[in-house]
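Mods, move this if it's the wrong board.
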Amino acid sequence: MVKSVKKISIVPIAFVVCVLVLMVQQALENKVGDIFGLLRYADKFFLACMLILVLYRAIDNKVMVPFTFQYAAIFIVFGVVSLLVNYPSRILYGAAQILLVLQGFIALFLLSNAKIKKRDVDFVIRVFILLGVITFMIAVVELVAPDAVRQVLHGGKVHETALSRGEYSAVQSIFGHPGMFSWYMAFCFCITLSLYIANTSSKNSTLYIFLAAIFFVGVLISLRRKSLIGCIVCGFLAFILRGGKSKSSLILIGVFVFVFVSYLLANGEKLMYLVESAKSGYDFSSSYYVGPRVELSKTAVEIANDHFPLGTGFGTFGSWYSRIEYSPVYREYYLDGYWGLSEDDPSFINDTFWPMIIAEVGWFGFVAYVLLLVSMFKKLLKIGFDKDEFSVYRMISVLIIVELILESIASPSLSRSPQIFFVMCLVGMIFSAWRLDKLGRAI
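Not the wrong board. Structure tokens:
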């Protein structure tokens, strides 16, 4: 083990340390105090170091732009122009918001230009899976003794609103929010599902499908709809990519149908609650106040139409910087009197992603962002087509990004760390390893 770790380059080791810090940061802050609050910026420090490394490599012309970033430039121009037109005094907040919105693509660019090898990627994936197993085990204990676990890990400081699902209680494990736990279980599910599909004939196939099954259970006990939908969609996508009616695909379907039906029989009332609460909590046709996400979504469309085609500008609606420096847009559209959207209680202002994009950069900016995602997928789908050994990485990349996009329907996952940081850094390392291997074979 020591010898194998010595072969791993410094970048993935530093990344793993950063992952560990981000996963326990909230628990340490809740348990010990605000002194650990600075640890939440570990990802920003890591990316700053990566930027210095990439700039150093650029001196020797070793840096490339592997993804089509002209859409990012168009996206930025739309948001900045609209901000200067509507709220020029907020330009500094807008500039900071640009970095938050595009931090995933920044991480992707920086890590794809790091010198990463296949064994480095394998090391990072193993760490993610190991942390997933530990996180799941803690969640199981939390199901049995919730108060004791939350007292030990979080000092009793929990997000009661997020944990409550009607008369039921969700789990959060080591994370500061149950939504983060559900996402990490779905993230690990996508990784282990991909590994199973790529290794159906190996001795590890049973282990991979078992791990995928327990991570799926982790999503179920989290009582989070978006993560459950993400796993189901990614499962079907993996089935399609695998190619239909193979024996391994049928085994895969059988295992997860068994897990889901077993959970349904034991906890059917919980799943029914999720369905019924979704119907009432996301009623977009209602003329009454339904909830923050619905109001943000409906108002975002109204803003985009009123300020066609460029929106109100970065940092003005549905974003972090529109929350910490309360944006006048909320008063203009009479949202400042709603629970979670007022200046005194802005806790749900940045609880979505797409309403932010639509309102801040308008319909043109929304199209530019979608095209940016599409251009990224086109590049990722090329990974492994010239070498079967890398095909599993292609599936991992596609599934974890698709799942994250599905999470963004009801969360700011595409602009919130550690979600976007974990995903895009891993995808960037995968792309770097494939490119390095490809260059080695070309010599």
